[in-house]
Amino acid sequence: MSFKGKHALVTGGSRGIGRGIALKLAESGARVAVHYYANEGAAKDTLERVRKHGADGFLVQADVSRVDDVRRMFGEVKQRFGTLDVFVANARPEAAKFYQKPMEITLEAWDHAMDSQAKAFLVGVREAAGLMGQGGRIVAITYAPGGQRGTWQPWVAMGSAKAALESLVRYFAVALAPRGITVNSVSPGLTDDSVLQSFGDAAVDIARKWHGSGWTPMGRMGTPADIGNAVAMLCSPEASWITGQLIYADGGASLVDTLLPLEIQRG
Fold first, then answer.
1. Is residue 2 part of a domain?
2. How many domains does the chain have?
3. Global pTM value
4. Per residue in 190-213, pLDDT tens?
5. Residue 91, phi-psi category: left (phi > 0), alpha (psi -120 to 50), beta (remainder)
6. CATH, residue 153
7. Which domain does 174 fall in, by range?
8. Gap between the Cα atoms of 30 and 243, Å rounded
């Protein structure tokens, strides 16, 4: 799988899952625009790692919840790269910006989640498509269970925003298919060095034990590199017949029946 001569933009590429995606694309030869919002130091570190893979790129700062910033970001991509082959929409705000229960959430927090996900993707895809030729690739990073279930109460805004984003993936997949541009989404399972870390070490330890006990059939949580591999597959020329799909990169966690204890399921 080679992306030599290709240009990619990864939003939220400074750390975590975004960094894993940026490094995988760079490892395969792509030049990568690494987007960040506030943590310039982490973004510089990612770009340095990109260059160690023999690729190159640049940093671009933007608040993806602001339409003008999204458009400016793509303007910088056009100025630096001229064209774009891969757009990965991964950026999300810190949990403190939206992490409130449905009966308590402020409209400001709700709007911030929606603006940073569904609206940012709507604007971003239209900007990206203008820079893409035949065979472009667009991938959105989501968390599908958050939009399908209701027990993680403080996730209501982000879960709803991601559900809207997943719907946009399907509509854009149809709209851009005549140009050979594919649009897909990837739903990671619980992943090390991701949003989970913002909830503290105790939460991370609980999650590791939970998934290690069998709630993820593969017996572990994911890594940013795992998600980078999944995204790179969808962005390869060989994936030209896959579009409008939601891909679970979760070690089989989405296959587990949560209504029965594992002890019963294992027989």
1. no
2. 1
3. 0.95
4. 888 777 777 778 888 888 888 888
5. beta
6. 3.40.50.720
7. 7-266
8. 21
